[in-house]
Amino acid sequence: MTTYKLQYFDGRGRGEVIRMLLSLGGKKFEDVRYSMAQWGDVKKDLPLAQLPILYVDGKPLCDSSAISSYLAREFGYYGSNNWEAALIDQVVGVIIDLWTPLVMTIFLPDEAAQLAKQKEIFDGKAHGFLKFLEDALCKNKEGDGFFVGDKISLADLNFHTSWETLQNLKYTEKNLDKYPKLAALQARLSADKDLSGYLAARPKHNV
Questions:
Q1: For the domain that residue 62 is a member of, what is the CATH number?
Q2: What is the CA radius of gyration of the chain?
Q3: How many angstroms separate the Cα of 190 from the Cα of each of 29, 94, 135, 162, 193?
Q4: Neighbours of 7 (CB within 10 A)
Q5: Which structural domain range is residue 186 located in?
Q6: Strand order through the sheet with 30-34
């Protein structure tokens, strides 16, 4: 039996899609979480001095995108052909472009600065990204299915954790009502029989 050990911070961030893939695939895994206080001691022993790292039968795989793509292919969540895989990559890329600048606002020095930057980003490029995602979803079963194909894929999992972040940022959480199909997708994913147990039991974090 293949063994999995994930090393990441004690938060969702770039590790959550990996945890969700392992849970969705029905795989037991060692979920090693580090606090920021531990980080200085931990990073000096890591291949790239960064997290996450997934150990598969003891072999390390670095970089969140590489890990997620590997697991999605292994467990059948990367589409049914190369075109669907490309569409999944497209959605994931848009989500990264949406999520990354917004999540970085939490590192600004005070709440006023965070809110101002979130407003600038969300009222600017973020709306275009969200409209693209809602339109992409609505091309597939009128928005009542998934981004690509007829089952959950890597695209949907990336969306789920990014939407959670938007719900937990002070500016963006009040401005999501224009995208009801995206909100409904998150609810469907959260209720999935293979994901709901993990989501209910995991530690609670804003990002």
A1: 3.40.30.10
A2: 17
A3: 20, 21, 21, 13, 9
A4: 18
A5: 82-191
A6: 30-34, 4-9, 53-56, 59-62
Token digits for 37?
A: 């206080």
**DSSP assignment, residue 172?**
G
Both 115 and 165 in one domain: the answer is: yes
Assess whether 111 and 56 both reside in one domain. Answer: no
In angstroms, what CA-CA distances link 25 with 67, 73, 83, 119, 155? 14, 11, 22, 37, 15
Separation CA 6–CA 52 (nearest Å): 7
Phi, psi of 190, rounded to the nearest 5 degrees: -65, -30
In this structure, are 54 and 108 located in the same domain? no
**Residue pLDDT tens, the chain, 207 long:** 999 999 999 999 999 999 999 999 999 999 999 999 999 999 988 989 999 999 999 999 999 999 999 999 999 999 999 999 999 999 999 999 999 999 999 999 999 999 999 999 999 999 999 999 999 998 877 778 999 999 999 999 999 999 999 999 989 988 899 899 999 999 999 999 999 999 999 998 888
pTM of the full structure: 0.94
Residues 6+ apart with CB under 8 A from 184: 143, 144
